[in-house]
Amino acid sequence: MEEEDTRDYSEPCVQCSVVNWGLTDEGRFYCKSCHNVIERTKEVLTSDVVPNTKIQSISRGFRKRKKIDKGWEWYVCEGFQYILKKQAEALQTLGVCPQMKDEILCNFWRRYLQKSKQAYCTTPASYTSKTLSIYDVSTDVDSEPERISIHGLSSFSESDGDLQTESSFGHVSSIGKASARETTSICSGSVDGGSYLLKRKQGNLRMSMPMTLSFCYIALLWLREPVTLSDLLRFVIDGHIPYLNAFQYFPEEMKLYGVDLKIFRVESWPVYEDVHNKMSELAAFLDLPCFPAITDSCFLHPNILCIKYLMEANLPDELHNWTCRVVKKINVGETDFLTLDPVNKSARKVKYDVLAAATIIVVLKLLFLLDDQYEWLNANFAGKRNQKNKEGCLWFDFKKWYKIIKKSVDMEQKKLDEERARCLWKCEKPLFYSAKEKSVVLKKRQMVVNLQRQFGALSGSMQVAEKQSPSSFQLNWTEENTDGNCFHGHILEGVLQEKGNSLTTMNTKYWLCTVKLCNEKICGQLTHYKESDFPQSYQFVLNLFSFLLRVPASLIHEEVCLIEHKLFKTKLPRK
Amino acid sequence: MDSFVEQLKRGTQEEFTEESAWDGSAVNTTSSSLPAVYLPLLPRYLRHPTTRGRKATEFQETKKACLNYIQDALLHHQWQRAAEFMTNYLETLENTSAEKRIAAPEVIWRIGTEILCHHSKSSIEEFNYFAERMKNLGVKRYLKVCLEHVFHLLCNGLIDDAYQNLSLAEGWRYGEQTAAQDKELKLLQAYKGLLDYYNWAKKRKAMLELDGNFADSVEQEMHSFFRQAAVNLKEIIKIPGVWDPFVKCYVDLLEFYEDYDEVRQVLSEYAYNSKFPPNPNAHVYYYQFLKRHGESKKTLMSVLKILHEIVPSHELMLEYNAMLQKSKKRKNHRLGLEIIFTLLDFAGWKEHVKAWSCLAKQIKQILENSSKHLDWVTEKWNSRKDWWPAFHFSHYLAKRNWQENESLACEKALVAGILLGKDCKYFKYVSHQGCKAKKEKFRTMKKFVKKHSSTHLRASGVLDSCTHL
């Protein structure tokens, strides 16, 4: 209570120049270090004070409700901590190893808090400029920053919200005074919401909703879990991992409004490249050591991912032999290349899923050329042959494959588009910018719910279809199906020929997607993909993988160009 | 930075003077009148081309896609599907873009009513519930929604409910919003007046059926309905606009109570006040009223003259034509001929026997009157000779008219024969068929045409090409 009332007063004491005020029984201010009583007395707070400006002492479990409406005083990073915890739990129920939450993610998060000077340090970043001097002279044992080391961060699994945050923000109690003035100007539910958005200027790696996924991904990567980034994002969009309206898991008392909305409200799905870039930035920021090596037995190794995507794309198993050869030739299967090493800044941060997909495309180009001519001629040949010889292995018929895949992808795409259009973005707990808006927003929410009920009853779709259990496969093709739609067992006879004692392609030509890569620093990207410039078959294959990975076709195209450059390095004209 | 800008400025100035010196004095004058273009300085991060513009959030995009699905479903009458997507679209009311949030209620209202009107599981209760919600959604649209709700109730025959809703809406007060929706309020009251009129008319019918016994009380009730209706109807009619149903009812009320002066005033105002949009019905009502009260031919004709100018194809034109024919003035005869010709320019009159017989009769009269006014016919015909043959007198039409309506074919054949000569296809076909059927009137017609077709040729002299049609 005392701190609550005195913390707004941050003038140093006249006698000992320490800022550490207490209240006498009469409500007068006195200096706790030299016991000098001054003129100032406790102010009576008016009822409409700006949302509370200073956190008191979370470390002492001090959570005072000023007004019912105002809730707790909380920090933005606490909010993200809640969300990360929920996400980690969701990943665990999806089958990720249990270490992930309490050991890996939790540690990364602590490290992040420390590196970004939000906790576990003597001078939290946002207040440094103003509070440093005060700290240096502080003698009060009560404001000890060392306390943290005693308590440590309770692990995420101690799921009591209060416990969790308690120890991590112990320091905050005593440094609040200065920031009071900053935050009063910007209205927010959290204590530091207003200043949080300004932090970018300081070159700090700021938390954001996509960043939570970068955190999840980096933890998964550390554990070498068989989840690619595209899978992770797909699970997020399909609602298996909390992301949209994740703030609804906050405890009742953590109120969100004002600037907090900008931080926690989600109106767009995470973007692959964005999350990926943030992940590598984060790895560097956290100063992590080299990640566990990705060897050829790991799921993320291109040879293994290629098997997965070949299956999913309904392509012959025999192609795997070729993807392995390409991978070996361009050295992308090397552990050094694949393992994330934050220290080595020049190393490319591998997008495992995109790399595997691009490798398959390059192999298809090597074998079938994909110039809208060769593959069709070849397909006609294979088709005729298959008609004649019904026994034995079937030859891979590109045309038939195209027809089947096209049909099923179009269907799935249509379903997906409809599902997206049906996406509900708002949750039960509506967000409002300020208390003034509250009644309007609540009324509108009620209205929407009522109308949804009415139209839902009309369409009889009130009972929402059961959430499908997540799968890493979006398309399934099995040999058991007798309709002959599965190409896994088909052979590549007709496109390969024996030369010496190894197989080579019949096709002797190749075309490059681009001769010259752009400079990423000047153009912002390495390649510029314009659909109409490329053969239809190539576009189709690209779009197929773009659908499977749910990334833009241009991203895969870029990877294809990079692989080609490595593959044909010696033959390309040197500039 | 400042020094750089300075430099840049100086640089452009130098360039400027150089250029003008090089171009000579003539150009100098023009270029000095043009202000120089100062290119903005590019911030460093904009030095390379960017492909990313400001993108709409995915929330907006999915809602847009959702709307597209709804519209598609509506077009295909898939009400079930539309309702499903509607459930997901409703969130747009909570849109974060203020512009879209403001537009949303209207969209929801339109789509919602459409779905509720057609969905098999929908009922009037569902609709009422929805309408009440929508009324609550925005005060700016309150009265509009009320009115549309009333229309829907009326369409379903729920007149009492509609009346109740109108009374409620009439009493709606919401600060400045009430004043802002003044027009809607007037309209609402007018519809209430209309319903009062409806009740009044029911009472009138009841009274006429009753014997004198109860007539008094009924008459009193009737009178109160009359007063309520008259007040509201009179109000709306004062505002410039097209108020046909209201005017008709108001006139009916007034006429019943024999307030003819008021009727005359209202109707002439409605027809002739230039602030009102041109409205043929206004003239028709006025004409009908005048006719009912036995006004002079001259007055009637003057009303119809204006109507002719607005709608030359109006059905009253036949009446007008008849009136003109009866008049003694030659000028009027000529006008009558013009009216009937213009009337037949319109596809709607193509198969109107009476119109054709009028034309035939008039032309015949002119020819019989020693062809003194043959030039009238020639004049009218000249502007039509290049398209009437195909429009009215083709071989196909001859066949069809003959099959469907002999007397029409007969009248048309006579006109065709006179205007195009006896060799024209229409006349030839019809007269041939007529002779086969051995009908007396065709023989006389043929004779008449033969006698006058020479006159026709002499009169126009340019029709040879058309006769080949």
Order of helices and strands of chain A: HEEEHHHHHHHHHHHHHHHHHHEEHHH
The unreliable regions of chain B are 1-5, 11-29, 457-469
Q: Could you tell me the mean pLDDT of chain A?
A: 78
Count of DSSP H/I helices of chain A: 22
Distance between the termini of chain A: 72 Å
Order of helices and strands of chain B: HHHHHHHHHHHHHHHHHHHHHHHHH
Low-confidence stretches of chain A: 44-68, 127-186
Query: Using only CA atoms, what is the Rg of chain B?
Result: 35 Å
Name the beta content range of chain B.
Answer: under 5%
Rg of chain A computed from alpha carbons, rounded to a whole number of angstroms: 30 Å
**Gross morphology of chain B:** extended
Strands of chain A, total number: 5
So how many helices of chain B?
A: 25
Biggest interface, residues from each chain:
A-B, 33 and 39 residues
Could you outline the blueprint of secondary structure elements for this entry?
The complex is a heterodimer of chains A (575) and B (469).
Chain A: H1 2-6, E1 21-23, E2 28-31, E3 37-41, H2 76-93, H3 99-115, H4 125-137, H5 147-151, H6 161-168, H7 172-185, H8 193-198, H9 209-222, H10 229-237, H11 259-264, H12 272-285, H13 302-312, H14 319-329, H15 335-338, H16 352-368, H17 374-388, H18 398-421, H19 435-459, E4 496-499, E5 502-505, H20 520-523, H21 536-549, H22 553-567
Antiparallel strand pairs in A: 1-2, 2-3, 4-5
Helix pairs in contact in A: 2-3, 2-9, 3-9, 4-7, 9-12, 13-14, 13-16, 14-16, 16-21, 16-22, 21-22
Chain B: H1 2-23, H2 25-33, H3 58-75, H4 79-89, H5 98-118, H6 124-137, H7 142-155, H8 159-170, H9 176-180, H10 182-209, H11 212-238, H12 244-256, H13 260-272, H14 280-292, H15 297-310, H16 316-326, H17 330-343, H18 353-368, H19 374-382, H20 388-392, H21 395-404, H22 406-420, H23 425-436, H24 440-460, H25 464-467
Helix pairs in contact in B: 3-4, 4-5, 5-6, 6-7, 7-8, 7-10, 8-10, 10-11, 10-12, 11-12, 12-13, 13-14, 14-15, 15-16, 16-17, 17-18, 18-22, 21-22, 21-23, 22-23, 22-24
